[in-house]
């Protein structure tokens, strides 16, 4: 695929999956804009990716607009947007009736409202491209109704619905929108959203019987961003080693 002069912005790419996606897409020839709440981490990934860093809080409409203005002034044309930023690794597991209102609102605010807000702010830059593609990172936890983080699963189900509407409303602009639903993958960030026993049980239930890695998601994201998926829009691509089949 010819990615020469093609630019993609990956949100939440200061660490974890987003970091691997940013570095991997840069290796595949994309010019990468590393966007994250943590500006220092974004800078460090951008330096490795040979790209640019942008500090943004996707849960703030104002911050999204500021980031978009900055890029607009630089005449950036966005050919790809990967909405990967979310509250995830910092969450703790609990049944839905124990989640307090503030935590519920915050997760929905970042994961769902944030995805809508940053995409809205960046639309003028995406419209400058001849064939832009949006990839929204949801989660296969939606398909299995994974217990103990209902706010997160609900936010990701919302992201899937939002993706379908985006694909319709952006069709006339020639912009495609698809969602990716990754299964559980281990990153460099320790987290409490899955126990070692649950990891073992999931691996045993998968068709591909090994733990998933962030690198397992790269090919699917690159496919959805590029022209090989030019006839694919308004879909979800599930990458969970076959934990769920559909
Ligand atoms: N790791 C997994 O097993 C897994 C599985 C399915 C889906 N996902 C999804 O993949 C994505 C990345 O997961 P991860 O494991 O790397 O998560 P992570 O928690 O390690 O990283 C999230 C990143 O998003 C950034 N971020 C958080 N709030 C932000 C905000 N308001 N504005 C801008 N940036 C913000 C953080 O700074 C961080 O860099 C998330 O959308 C997650 O829901 C992860």
From TrEMBL:
Q: Which UniProt keywords apply?
A: Oxidoreductase
Q: Could you give a GO molecular-function term held by this entry?
A: 3-oxoacyl-[acyl-carrier-protein] reductase (NADPH) activity
Top-level taxon in the UniProt lineage: Bacteria
* InterPro entries linked: NAD(P)-bd_dom_sf, Sc_DH/Rdtase_CS, SDR_fam
State the EC number(s): 1.1.1.100
Keyword check for DNA repair, yes or no.
Answer: no
- Protein's GO biological process: fatty acid elongation
Q: What family is it from? A: Belongs to the short-chain dehydrogenases/reductases (SDR) family.
PANTHER family, A to Z: BLL7886 PROTEIN, SHORT-CHAIN DEHYDROGENASES/REDUCTASES FAMILY MEMBER
Protein name in UniProt: 3-oxoacyl-[acyl-carrier protein] reductase
